[in-house]
Amino acid sequence: MDSLSVLFFISSIDCGGAENHLLNLCRYLSGRGNQLHICALSGPGGDLEADFEKLGVRIEYLDLPSLRTFLNPVYMKRFREIVREFSPDIIHAHLYHAEAAAAVATFFGDAPLVVTRHSSGLEFNGTRRLVSRAVSSRISRLIAVSSEAAQEAENIGISARRISVIESGVDTSLFRPLEQSERERRRSDYLSGLFADKPEEPVILIGSVGGLKPVKNYPLFIEMAARLIKQGDLPGELRFVIVGDGQQRDELSALIEELGLKGVAALPGRDTRVQELLPLFDIFVLTSDSEGVPVALLEALSCGLPCVASRVGGIPETVAGNALLPEPGDLDGFFESVRSLIMDGNRRAVLGAAGRELAVGKYGLQGWGDRNLSVYLSAIRS
After folding, report:
1. 371 and 293, same structural domain?
2. What are 102-155's pLDDT values in tens digits?
3. pLDDT per residue over 204-242, tens digit each?
4. Which of 23, 105, 256, 261 is most buried, by the most CB atoms less than 10 A from its CB?
5. H-type helices in the chain, by residue range?
6. CA distance 146 to 314
7. Rounded to whole angstroms, how far apart are CA atoms 37 and 60?
8. Which domain holds residue 55?
9. Are 302 and 175 in contact (CB under 8 A)?
10. Complete edge-to-edge strand list for the sheet that includes strand 5-10
């Protein structure tokens, strides 16, 4: 088969781990001449809309209020129209709500359904678990980004023979270290924009990227920052940044104020230019309580950053010894891990170079995309 028509279902195309995962998959598939379409359950617009459109991906917005509206004849008609218009060879769903919507869409055509599970222990609890079990018969193949996600899917009712574990991928040509002169220039502008005192080098910038929501445990990141600042004997100026937005913005801003970090810790909001920002960090920190294989971590590794991340989900297997892994919620562990990297520039360089090598060798788009495509072909042939 020379070219495939692929219809993706996803909750929205705002900037997030699953959404960036899908963007990477579209980069790979569009480069091979496949016809790609997205059905987003949200209303029009989204942070990544322009990125998808540059790839020639057509986007349809359902503006679906909730899953309860599925049986509304208006939405059922729209599902039928979308499937008939795009005539997909594959329907591929990401995230719980989109998975349920895609299962409904399969009744209006004969395209097999592939779903990707991006985490474990988060999306498929309570009534969601029951819904997932009910629609599992519509799923031809399931891609899990970690062995934990695969086990959860099997426990819910997907047979092991239908499950493939394929970690997330990263565009290593887009997410890459910068030449020193370019980095110095960009970094000076970035630091000046983030912090009113316009700090001068040497500065050690410790950052994270992600939605400001409880599972990311950013209060721990901020408490770690406060303890590091109080340490007092560390080299250079310390600065902290969390790139992202979400429901905890006010809470985190208040905590920064309470701990006396105003001026040294910044919450600049969501930014779609993550590939331009990550290479400006010195250390990347992920304090999540639960994860599958976080795309932001792969992007940081690909940018050659030394990483400190919670020992949860698929992270230990993903980094393969090329990151420091304190236990989730362990403030002392994060403090000591980050402090050790602050104190040892050579260790930062070695760890960062190893992470870059790992990202290029194992998680580059070509090999990763090939593995996803093989699942599509297997579903079509079954």
Report:
1. no
2. 999 999 999 999 999 998 776 677 677 777 787 888 999 999 998 989 999 998
3. 999 999 999 999 999 999 999 999 999 877 888 999 999
4. 105
5. 17-31, 49-54, 73-86, 96-105, 127-135, 147-156, 180-194, 218-231, 249-258, 274-277, 295-302, 315-319, 331-343, 345-362, 365-381
6. 5
7. 8
8. 5-169+364-381
9. yes
10. 58-61, 35-40, 5-10, 90-94, 113-117, 139-144, 163-165
- For the chain, first and last CA: distance in Å? 15
Does pLDDT of 295 surpass 80? yes
CA distance 109 to 142: 19
Alpha-carbon Rg for the chain, nearest whole angstrom, is 21
Task: Tell whether 202 is covered by a domain.
Answer: yes
Contact (CB, 8 A) for 84 and 60: no
Q: Is the CA virtual torsion 46, 52, 54, 60 positive or negative?
A: negative
- Spatial neighbors of 154 by CB under 8 A, at least 6 apart, are 160, 163
246 token code pair: 């979400």
Is residue 263 domain-resident? Answer: yes
CA–CA distance, 357 with 361 (Å, rounded to integer): 6
Tokens 């990202």 belong to 359
